[in-house]
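Need C-alpha cells for this chain, all 705 residues.
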Amino acid sequence: MRPLLPDDPVAYGPHVLLARLGAGGTGVVYLARSPGGRLVAVKAVHSELAADPAFRERFARELAALRAAGGAFTASLVDADPDASRPWLATVYLPGATLEEVVRATGPLPVPAVNALGAGLAEALVSIHRAGVAHRDVKPSNVMITPYGPRLIDLGMARPPGTAELPETMPGTPGYLPPEQASGGEGGPAGDVFSLAAALVFAATGAGPFDADTVPAVLYRVLHAAPSLDGVTDAPLRAFLGSCLSRDPRERPTAAQVMEFFAGRAGAGLPFAAAAVVHQAAGRVPPPGAPPWRMAPSVKRRRMVKGLVIGGAVALAGGTAGAAGLLVSRAPDSPEEWRRRLPENASEVFPAGAMVLAMGYDLGCYALDGRTGKRRWHRSDLSVSPNLGGLLLAGDVPVGYDSRAVYALNPSTGEELWRHSAESRWHPPACDRNIVCIPTSEGVGEGLLIGRDARTGAERWRRAVGTHVRDTGVALGGGVAYFSAEGGALEAVEAATGRSRWRVVLGRGTLYRMDTPVVAGGAVYVFDNAGVLHARGAGDGARRWTAEVGGVPGDLETEQVMVVGDAVHTMTTDGTIRSFDAATGRARWRLPTGVRARRRLAGQMTPAGDVLLVMAHETLLGVGAADGRVRWRQEIGIQESAPVLAGGLAHLRTLHGIRSYDPADGRPVRLLAGSQYSTPSTLRAHRDLVLCSVYPADVVALRPR
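Here are the C-alpha cells for all 705 residues:
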C-alpha cells in the first residue's frame, strides 16, 4: 500500500479513496471506503488509455466477467462506471498477501497447503469458466492469500473463447501463460488450467516450471522444453501437475477435474510463518474513520508507514495499552541494544541528538533516550499528519514538518515552542543552529521564503520569490541560504538577516524550474529543467562550470544532486546516474538503473568509501565510485530505498527481514528474520546503532554487528 499522490482524485463515484494498492500498465488500484463504510478496491483506467475505444472494449469485458463469475474464491464486483472519463470498477477488498509475496518471504509451501490452495483456485476457475469466460492471466501475483482462503483476482485479460484479441494486448505473463498464448494464439479454459498448474509449481518449489534468465528464454522453454518439476517432492502431485502442463490443450484436465483431484487429497492451512505474513498484511488496514493517506508534493519520499510491503497493506495496528512505554526484555544474545513498546505504532523513527523521536498518526510524538530507550516525554496531543514530512534539528531543537505546518519542540519537555501554519508548503524547510528557513506561500500564488528564529519562532525576515512556489527549494550552508526563484534565478541571502548576498540568472528563455540547491566544498549546485547542471561559487555566485546532462531531473521538488568527495552525481528521469568532476565538470561515468527518479538521489544511493550503494528496482548494486562499474549485486526482493551505514556495514530491509552487507564486496553478514522483526519502518543510523519501529508497536535500537 502506498500514499495517494497529490493529483489522485478524492473519490470514484461514492467511494472515497484511502490509499494506493498498486499500479500497472493499464490502471491504478486504490483502497477506498464505500458509503456504508466497507473497504473496496477501486480499479481506475489510466487517463491516456481511457480515450482508446479498443481499451474501453477490454474494460467492458473485464466488467462483464466480474459480474458473471461470482463464487467464493474470486473478488465480487461492488460498483462500476464504464462510461466515466476514466472508467472504474470497485470490488470487495481482499486483505492479505499474494502467493508470490508469501512464497518469496517464507519459502515453498508444504504439500498439504498446496493441495488446499489448488482446490480453492480450481473452484474459482470453475466459476469463471461456467460464466463463459477464461481468466487468461493466472499467476502467483494474481492469487491473493487471505485469512479466509485463496482468491483469484484481476480479470483484466478475461474474455470469452473465440473473441478477437485486441491489438497490442499482451496475452498473459511469460512463464505462466500456456503455449497456445505464447505462440500468439487464443487462450481459453484449458490455458487457465496450464497457468494454474504453473502457479502451483511455484507454490511448491519457489520457482516457476519454465524459469529462465530472459523473457525470450522463458518463452522458448514454454514452447519447446519440458517443465521443471523436480522440486515437487510428492510423486502423485508431480504427475498430475505435469499433465496440466501438457503442450496440447486437449490432453489437460478440465478445471472441474483439477478441483476433484485436489478435493480428494489431504489439505491443510498455511505453515506458521506464511500464515503470519498473511495475517500481518491483512491487519494493516486503515481503522474506521481514518483519513485518506495522501502524500504532499514536497515529501514524496515519505510514507505514513514504511515497512516490508507484503500484500499491500499499511501497518496501523498499535501495541496494547498495558504494554505502553515499557522496555521489553531481550535474550542475552539479542542483537538489540534496547527495545521499547509504545502505546501505538510509530510510522517513522528519527534520531534527534541524544534522543530518538518516534512519530505516528495515532501515536503523536514519543521521545526516547537514544542510549537506553527510556521514556523522555510523550506528546499524544501532537497530531502528526498522515503525509508525515520529517524531522530536522536546529542545534538541539527538533523541527518537525508536514504539508501543513512547520513546528519546533522543546527537546527537554516536548512542549511546542512555535508553529508556522501555511496555506501551502511544497518543500522541506532548512535549518542551522539559529534559523529555520521555510519555503511557503501566502495568498494566491505568492511564493515566500521566511526565516524564523529556531527557538522562539520570531520572524527574522521574508523574501518574495515569485508566483511559482513549487519551484522554491532552500539549502543552508555557512550561514547563507541558497534558493531558486522565479525566472530561472539562483539567490543567496544571509540566513540570519535575509540580506542579499548575490543573485544570478541561470536560464535562457524557457528555463523556469530548478531543483533544491546543494551546497558543498565552496560551491552550490543546481539542476534545471533543461537538463543542465550548474556549478556556482558559494561566496559570489560566479560561474564555475555547466554540464549538459541530456535529460531532465525526474522530480524537481527534491534534490537530484549529491556531492561525494570530489564528485558530483545527478539522476535524471529515466533513472540514469551520472558522475562529474566537482572541480571541472568533466563527465566521469554514467549508470542506468532503470528506476524512474521519484525520490531524492540520497534515497536511491548511499556512499560507502570507494563504493556507492545503489538501489535498482529490487537489486542492491555495489558501484565503484571512481569508474561507475558494478562490483557486486544482491537481490533484495522488494523495491527499497538506499541502505544506511552503521558499524562499517550497510543495513536495509529485504523480503526476508533486515539484512546487513559488507559494502566492499556485498557479502551478507547478518539477517534479522522478518518473523522477529516484522514490517520495520525506515532504517536510520543513530551513532553506532540502527533504529526502526517494528510490528506491532516497538521501537528497537540494533547493534550493527
